[in-house]
Amino acid sequence: MYISTPFISVLAAASTAQAFQFSDITTTASNIKRGIKQEACPAVWSEISATLTQQFLADGQCTDAARAAIRAGFHDCFNGACDGSLILADECSRPENIGLARLCGNLGNLAQQKNVGVGDLIQFAAAHAIKTCPGGPTVPVKIGRKDSSTPSPAGILPTGHESAPDLIAHFAARGFSAIDLAALIGAHTAARNRVTVPDKANLTMDSTPGQWDNRYYAETINGKAPVTIPSDRNMAGNLLTGVPMRSFAVSQGAWGVAFVPAMEKMGLMGVGRSGLVDCTAALPGGSRRRDVKRAGVWERVRW
């Protein structure tokens, strides 16, 4: 086949221009990447991590202090913002926070000793406790929140007696889907009932409270948990939350894939991401990448 010389010249010119443009883009991207300096997590958070491990792990199981830390992470944020007001405004003394007083005192003292933000420490401790529980995933944690000593509104936290539609709407108003909600309540795998079901006070919500596993879902759905709070039972029977709960009962990996981003979102309520420093590497086991690699292919697909 005959190809004219002018045509060959045009192709050559086009190829040269394309190569030049691609080279420019690559060089520009590299320069931008080099120009962005990733601020390192302060070393003090590794020191704090070592201290928390001593408090959150005993005999290969996560402790009551770890359970309280996970609960505190939710209670500081859901009223409005993850700003440390749980401790700084003494919200810990509210009836809705019964059982958290000791943890609030310990974290408040630790924040003062290490000169770190209280809101940051509450969320770091929650992520640390989740990871410390055997089987727990790595929830990315950021540092740099602005603390507040102004009390958040009372009466916003769920009571444990809501209907599923009410609870779904309550979380939706704060940016969480029904699947987020179904995943987040899985933290009850390491929880104790305090006063929600009075005749079963201090009983755990699944049969393996010292481990982070999906047994909570199976036992809640089958009615075999030591205690189930009414709202959890209601969600198990609702289509929007019950379907993902049944999926999580079958696959802990699927639960983890849904739980981690929902919990990370919770830890940034009223804060945003701008100006924050990633301190995930200071958690036990460090990077989230290891969790993703361990998960099966289908478990990595988000809902």
UniProtKB/TrEMBL annotation:
<dbReference type="Pfam" id="PF00141">
    <property type="entry name" value="peroxidase"/>
</dbReference>
<feature type="binding site" description="axial binding residue">
    <location>
        <position position="188"/>
    </location>
    <ligand>
        <name>heme b</name>
    </ligand>
</feature>
<dbReference type="InterPro" id="IPR010255">
    <property type="entry name" value="Haem_peroxidase_sf"/>
</dbReference>
<keyword id="KW-0408">Iron</keyword>
<keyword id="KW-0349">Heme</keyword>
<feature type="signal peptide">
    <location>
        <begin position="1"/>
        <end position="19"/>
    </location>
</feature>
<feature type="binding site">
    <location>
        <position position="213"/>
    </location>
    <ligand>
        <name>Ca(2+) 2</name>
    </ligand>
</feature>
<dbReference type="GO" id="GO:0020037">
    <property type="term" value="F:heme binding"/>
</dbReference>
<feature type="domain" description="Plant heme peroxidase family profile">
    <location>
        <begin position="31"/>
        <end position="296"/>
    </location>
</feature>
<dbReference type="InterPro" id="IPR001621">
    <property type="entry name" value="Ligninase"/>
</dbReference>
<feature type="binding site">
    <location>
        <position position="189"/>
    </location>
    <ligand>
        <name>Ca(2+) 2</name>
    </ligand>
</feature>
<keyword id="KW-0325">Glycoprotein</keyword>
<dbReference type="InterPro" id="IPR000823">
    <property type="entry name" value="Peroxidase_pln"/>
</dbReference>
<keyword id="KW-0575">Peroxidase</keyword>
<feature type="site" description="Transition state stabilizer">
    <location>
        <position position="71"/>
    </location>
</feature>
<keyword id="KW-0106">Calcium</keyword>
<feature type="binding site">
    <location>
        <position position="83"/>
    </location>
    <ligand>
        <name>Ca(2+) 1</name>
    </ligand>
</feature>
<comment type="similarity">
    <text>Belongs to the peroxidase family. Ligninase subfamily.</text>
</comment>
<dbReference type="GO" id="GO:0140825">
    <property type="term" value="F:lactoperoxidase activity"/>
</dbReference>
<keyword id="KW-0560">Oxidoreductase</keyword>
<protein>
    <recommendedName>
        <fullName>Peroxidase</fullName>
        <ecNumber>1.11.1.-</ecNumber>
    </recommendedName>
</protein>
<dbReference type="InterPro" id="IPR002016">
    <property type="entry name" value="Haem_peroxidase"/>
</dbReference>
<dbReference type="GO" id="GO:0006979">
    <property type="term" value="P:response to oxidative stress"/>
</dbReference>
<feature type="binding site">
    <location>
        <position position="85"/>
    </location>
    <ligand>
        <name>Ca(2+) 1</name>
    </ligand>
</feature>
<keyword id="KW-0479">Metal-binding</keyword>
<dbReference type="GO" id="GO:0046872">
    <property type="term" value="F:metal ion binding"/>
</dbReference>
<keyword id="KW-0732">Signal</keyword>
<keyword id="KW-1015">Disulfide bond</keyword>
<feature type="binding site">
    <location>
        <position position="208"/>
    </location>
    <ligand>
        <name>Ca(2+) 2</name>
    </ligand>
</feature>
<feature type="disulfide bond">
    <location>
        <begin position="62"/>
        <end position="133"/>
    </location>
</feature>
<feature type="binding site">
    <location>
        <position position="76"/>
    </location>
    <ligand>
        <name>Ca(2+) 1</name>
    </ligand>
</feature>
<feature type="binding site">
    <location>
        <position position="206"/>
    </location>
    <ligand>
        <name>Ca(2+) 2</name>
    </ligand>
</feature>
<feature type="active site" description="Proton acceptor">
    <location>
        <position position="75"/>
    </location>
</feature>
